[in-house]
Amino acid sequence: MILGIDLGTSMVKAVIFSDEGRCLAVASRRSSPQALGGGRIEQDFEEIVTAVSDVVREVCGAPGHVPDAIGITGQSDGLWLLDENGRGVRPAVSWLDDRGNPYLQGWIDSGAFEAVFRRNANAIFPGSHAPLMAALRDGDPDALTRAHTASYLKDGILQRLTGARVTDASDASLPFLDIARRDYDPEILDILGLSEMRRLLAPVMPAPGRSFALNAEGAALTGLPEGVPVHAGPFDLVACPMGAGLREVGDGLIIIGTTLACEVLTDHVDTRGAPVGMTLCMPQDGRWVRSMPATVGTATLDWVLDLVGASHTDVEGLLAQSPPGANGVTALPFFSATGERAPFVDVRARGQLAGLSTATSRADLVRAVCESVAYAARHCIEAAGLTGRVLVCGGGSNSQTWSQMVADVLQRPLHIAPRPEVGARGAAIAAMDAVGLAYDADLWTRAESIIEPNRDAAQHYEDGFAVYLDTVEAARGLWNR
Question: What's the CATH number for 294-416+452-479?
Answer without folding.
Answer: 3.30.420.40
